[in-house]
Amino acid sequence: MNTLARTELRQRSDYTHRFNEQAGRHGWLRLTPAYSVRVVDELMDRYDGAARVLDPFCGTATTALSAAYRGYEGVTTDINPFLVWLGQAKTAQYSNADIASTQRARERLICRLRQGNLEPVKAPPMHNIKRWWSKEALKFLCVLRAGIEEESEAKSPERDLLLIAFCRTLIDLSNAAFNHQSMSFKEDGQLRLPIDADMEHIFCEGLRFVLRGAENNPGGSGKVVLGDAKNLPEVVDGQFDLVITSPPYANRMSYIRELRPYMYWLGFLDNGRDAGELDWCAIGGTWGVATSRLSNWESPQLSFNHPLLDAPLREITLGKNKNGKLLANYIAKYFNDISAHMKSLAPVLKSGSKLHYIVGNSVFYGILLPVEKLYAALLESLGFEDVDCSAIRKRNSKKELFEFDVSASWPG
What we know:
The protein starts with a helix and ends with a strand. Helix 5 packs across helix 7 (about 135-150). The longest helix is centred in the N-terminal third of the chain and has 24 residues, at about 5-25. Helices cover about 50% and strands about 15% of the residues. With about 400 residues, it is of the alpha/beta class. It has a domain at about 95-215. The protein has helices at about 5-25, 35-45, 60-70, 80-90, 95-115, 130, 135-150, 155-170, 195-215, 255-265, 270-280, 290-295, 305-320, 325-345, 370-380; strands spanning about 50-55, 75-80, 175, 185, 220-225, 240-245, 350-360, 360-365, 365-370, 385-395, 400-410.
């Protein structure tokens, strides 16, 4: 084996070791594909000594957690309070005492469940909640949620770890299918009603998985901050060496809609209007009230304009589809918001810092939207240098759809 091959094999082995160490926390809610972890990890391989790493779009805190496992300081922001809570739980340091205390809380909780002396909480006011969970599953979840409240202190490590296991159980017991971009529901004939003992076992297995991840503490620090990525100087402190992020794609996927089971059960939402308001403030959100507002939205005078954007907007607006104007407004607002975000980056970047945006292009009614080229044009218009677009993988069966790494440097 030649030297180059040995080096590549060693790098792959190092990555596998790191991934195995990190997989527990990255997979706590099954919201972080292994592919995403690999992309972030490989990008960080290029920058030894990137002391401060920023991700303006937290998601499930992949970048912040990966930075912390390397001994760096990872800072990430999100406008969604549930994702901020999850990110803080994932990047936290857990002592042996925390693990032991959580195990004792689990034992007390299981004892209470079997004794049947817990007063269940009310099911959250989710629309059509019985489509999500069977009658038996709902009853168990309401009792389990009550037991977690009684057997752990608010804002304690034990409460966080138990709630993460609860969130895993929510989805394991649900009728929702998450094997494609947007969730769907199983048909009536596919539903299985688990018995109480099975549901208890599902929760306990979920908690064992969570605790295994909690035992492996990162060497660095992760900080997760609630805030708007369109106004970073008011959200984060100091300056950063490296930005690795994956903003919401321009595909009308609502992350609030996808996350609402967790958000309702954990008290981050209690009505649909608030969900729509949050989606309107987020980049790319179009759920509920956000959709109705898009119909009358007008682009600000100083918004981002570019021939690569103008042509698709014109074609989509003038197309035969009755929602053409709505979708054109969605796309225009999306890039207006991304432009505001990028303009807010400069004050928080060190001279010579590097940026990587992982983005996907989109197709609307057969019209290709070259998102990666528009990101590159935005960065160049704002004074960033060494701007480059690299395709990193095919997204699905549609031949036009790819994910790209749009990279750049800040001259300072």
